[in-house]
Amino acid sequence: MNETPRPTTTLWRPTGPVELALVRDLSWRAWPPRLPEQPIFYPVLNEDYAVRIARDWNVKHSGAGFVTRFEVETEFLKRYPVQQAGGRTILELWVPAEELDEFNAHIVGTIEVVHEFR
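^ ADP-ribosylation/crystallin J1, sequence as received from the core. Prediction below:
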């Protein structure tokens, strides 16, 4: 019996070169554990917002910025209310660091880089 694929939601994550190297080390299938000063993992809900962060913040702070795109099981994401972190389109999910392993287990497919800024 074939299992029907579960519906997924597309998320984006703006990131710098250090975090991106850690994702590569995890075979593009998971996000690395948060550092002690990073209690929350923030994937975002739209590509334009991710581009702005990668281009305007990551480049300034680390010389390069990347936008990644990945799919997560929609049903699993229902536990994280959408957070409006500013304007109407500045939408994030706030995943507590201690839940990141479980979050990673619900990623479908691989994490891919869709934009790069230097």
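The chain is about 30% helix and 30% strand.
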